[in-house]
Design a protein that fits this description.
Strands 31, 32, 33, 34, 35, 36, 37, 38 and 39 form a nine-stranded mixed beta sheet that branches. Strands 1-8-9-10-11-12 form a six-stranded antiparallel beta sheet, with helices on one face. With 767 residues, the protein is mainly beta.
Length: 767
């Protein structure tokens, strides 16, 4: 009995000595680059991976999984102290439970080679034909899984068995796998660079590099440390399992009971599509489908499938759900991607119609037209009148036409013929003064207006500090355009043009230099641009400023902590200014503590808060005004009766209406606010006679901008431009049959010209 035991021990020692091999293969001398691609999925049975060449990665075989020679795994030795339940290891795990550990001398323990030899010509081997493997049954839960059997070179992908070129091995407490077997089973592209001894794995746009004898691998250039170095063994490039799963973002679990590692593969392709155009009308619109599809591993998409209700044109309105799917070269179908298409009733043309208050009129008798046009889809219409007039002064039939057009270009025209008798009611001048609507332009003798008496008024002010940043108006370089500190009520007027070759942004930066938090409340705000027209930006910014005043809308307060800087009024820098673009801002703020304000212009990609300490102060241009001016709300109170005779109120001439004086804080010099831009005028007329016409007459040149009269905003003018001649006036207000109070709120719009007159004219008696 003892003799028999001694004999068995001797045989075991000899066999183990023969089986021991070095842990690292000899260096590879070839300088070629070997490339591999995704392996196609098999049907049933076991498929072997092609034998590796003397390089760790052999030349790729055509159209299928490759079959390297396999090396049987050492006899399994169950891990001690590991529960039999499935557990999820962390990426930092070392040896997986149930694997045979390497000997203490660092070599990898393996069994003799199984003798599988590849065909000389890989193209002759039907790689994806199933080859039954005796005694190996596909796991029942293999769908979407890659299963590695511990202590074995057997692998299952989607339930199909494969044979790896090397089994999982444990070296110095770390579990290693063949990188080629892994990436081919997962289905990602790889290459081997023999010169650098690197395996380069590509998944989508991500590139991973693993180098022989290095514990460091990179993902898109970022270094990651592995638990053990990659190495080459018998022509196979071995890598820690946890490293490749982490690099490829593959979750896995360990099944101790069945001694396997289960990797969850995301192998399904994805499909999506969009539909154009946005609005689709039944029987009219050609529908375009823009598809997008991909495979997570880069497998080519070979087929697409649509649901039956996909149409190039839909005959009937309604909702249609269209499904789209794709299949990749691994025969994997994506989940169907649904889009619900709303098909609208075909666009109907608008209906043009209008009425007149009568069918027959005297010459000079007002014709009241009422537009009753409508659109079946309730869309906004563009209205064009032909031969419309307040009154007509030639007897006979008069055709009046109205054309309305919807946003799709469909239009409709209505016509009505009225009759004008030979009897006259009003003259043309009387009709213009009596019936022109506020904002429209009328003609008056501009030569007489300067000689009209100027209304006497009591002048007072409100304590708004005006910060006018308007010089250099044309900005040629980045820098600080204005810096000033203010507390309480502060008014801003900012108006600048980008004269640089690059896109710039304009900012207002608030800084709290106090020991306590400071709160800023935006009371009224108007921002316009960027566009190339200075007049337009001034007009629109003032329109928005007055609209916020009429509606009472304010922005939420912002609080600055001590030492904090913050960009405020952020719509100013929402869109970058192209070369020659202009931005305008009008705003009223309130701060409870002194706040330093910086108006800066910098290139669109730069952080203005980071750039602020290094920006130069820009000098004024010597033409336009910048400065800080106190008491910028000017109140003019007229107590005398106005309108019994023609008179005027002149603003912005620096004689009757003096400029505000202030200081340029950038230079420390005194400045005069030419034109009083940024000054808010509150004109209070206590007594305006019945039947008085108030008009606005610019004298310095073109003018565009609004005002508020008795709480209603009026554009000056509604269409066109004022001030092209001294005769042009815009109607501001018209009193009724009784004397009354009129309040006008006015501020000069940036880009427009001063001085301006408010003209008060008695109206002719109505008939």
């Amino acid at each position: 009995m003892n003799l028999k035991r001694t004999f068995l021990v001797a045989v075991l020692v000899v066999s183990q000595s023969v089986a021991a091999v070095p842990a690292f293969a000899a260096p590879v001398s070839t300088q070629t680059t070997i490339t591999g691609t995704v392996a196609a999925a098999g049907n049933t049975g076991a498929t072997q991976l092609q034998t590796e060449s003397t390089n760790p990665l052999a030349t790729e075989t055509p159209a299928g999984s490759v079959t390297p020679t396999s090396t049987p795994v050492p006899e399994a030795t169950p891990a001690q102290g590991i529960p039999a339940a499935t557990a999820t290891p962390s990426p930092a795990a070392t040896a997986l439970p149930g694997e045979t550990a390497a000997p203490a001398d660092g070599t990898v323990t393996t069994a003799p080679v199984d003798g599988v030899v590849p065909t000389e010509d890989p193209a002759m081997t039907p790689f994806m034909q199933p080859t039954p493997t005796p005694g190996i049954a596909a796991p029942a839960d293999g769908a979407g899984k890659l299963i590695l059997m511990m202590n074995s070179n057997k692998m299952f992908r989607n339930g199909t068995p494969y044979t790896a070129n090397q089994p999982m091995a444990v070296k110095n407490g770390v579990s290693y796998v063949s990188i080629r077997a892994m990436v081919e089973m997962v289905g990602v592209a790889f290459t081997y660079d023999a010169k650098t001894k690197e395996v380069i794995v590509t998944k989508g746009t991500s590139i991973m590099r693993f180098k022989t004898d290095s514990k460091i691998y990179t993902v898109d250039g970022t270094k990651v440390t592995m638990k053990g170095p990659a190495y080459q063994f018998k022509g196979t490039f071995m890598i820690p399992l946890t490293s490749i799963t982490s690099a490829l973002k593959i979750p896995y679990t360990v099944d101790n009971v069945q001694k396997r590692v289960i990797l969850t593969l995301n192998t399904k392709p994805t499909a999506s599509f969009t539909v154009q155009p946005k609005e689709i009308y039944a029987g009219e619109t050609i529908v375009t489908y823009v598809t997008s599809s991909s495979s997570p591993n880069g497998t080519p998409i070979v087929e697409e499938r649509w649901s039956d209700n996909k149409r190039d044109m839909y005959d009937q309105p309604g909702f249609y759900t269209v499904m789209y799917s794709v299949r990749d070269a691994n025969n994997m179908w994506s989940d169907p991607y649904p889009v619900t298409i709303q098909v609208l009733q075909p666009n109907q043309p608008p209906v043009a119609q209008f009425t007149t208050d009568k069918d027959e009129y005297k010459m000079g008798e007002p014709v009241i037209l009422t537009d009753t046009s409508y659109d079946p889809e309730n869309e906004e219409l563009t209205v064009t009148w032909n031969n419309r007039s307040l009154a007509y002064f030639t007897s006979g039939p008069v055709p009046i036409q109205l054309t309305v057009t919807d946003k799709h270009g469909l239009s409709s025209t209505a016509e009505k013929i009225i009759n004008i008798t030979s009897e006259q009611l009003y003259t043309q001048d009387e009709v213009t003064k009596l019936f022109t609507i506020p904002g429209d332009i009328i003609s008056m003798d501009g030569g007489k207006i300067p000689s009209l008496p100027n209304l006497p008024y009591n002048l007072s002010s409100e304590g708004y500090t005006l910060i006018r940043s308007n010089s250099p108006e044309t900005v040629n370089t980045e820098g600080v355009l204005y810096r000033e500190s203010s507390v309480g009520n502060t008014r801003f007027l900012v108006h600048h043009m980008n004269n640089m070759a690059t896109r710039q942004k304009l900012y207002v930066i608030a800084t709290n230099n106090n020991l306590y938090p400071a709160t800023i409340t935006t009371q009224y705000l108007g921002i316009a641009g960027p566009v190339t027209s200075p007049e337009y930006t001034g007009k629109v910014s003032m329109e928005k400023y007055f609209k916020s005043m009429v509606t009472g809308s304010t922005e939420a307060p912002v609080t600055l902590q001590p030492g904090q800087s913050m960009i405020i009024m952020t719509d100013l820098n929402k869109i970058a200014m192209k070369p020659k673009d202009v931005m305008s801002l009008s705003a009223d703020l309130f701060s409870d503590l002194p706040v330093q304000y910086n108006v800066v212009m910098v290139e669109q990609t730069k952080d203005p808060l980071a750039e602020l300490p290094y920006l130069p102060f820009l000098d004024s241009d010597g033409v336009h005004t910048r400065g800080t001016f106190p008491d910028s709300t000017r109140i003019m109170n007229v107590t005398d009766l106005v309108g019994t005779t023609q008179s005027k109120l002149l603003l912005g001439d620096n004689k009757l209406d003096k400029n505000l004086d202030g200081i340029d804080p950038m230079k420390g010099t005194y400045v005069s606010n030419a034109g009083n831009f940024g000054v808010l005028y509150k004109i209070v007329l206590d007594r305006v006679a019945a039947n008085t016409l108030i008009t606005f007459n610019p004298r310095g040149g073109p003018y565009l901008g609004p005002l508020i009269v008795n709480g209603t905003m009026v554009n000056l003018p509604n269409k066109g431009t004022l001030g092209l001649s001294s005769d042009t006036n815009a109607v501001v207000y018209r009193t009724g049959e009784y004397e009354g109070r009129v309040e006008i709120v006015f501020s000069v719009a940036s880009g427009s010209n001063l001085p301006v007159n408010f003209v008060f004219t008695p109206l002719p008696a109505k008939k």
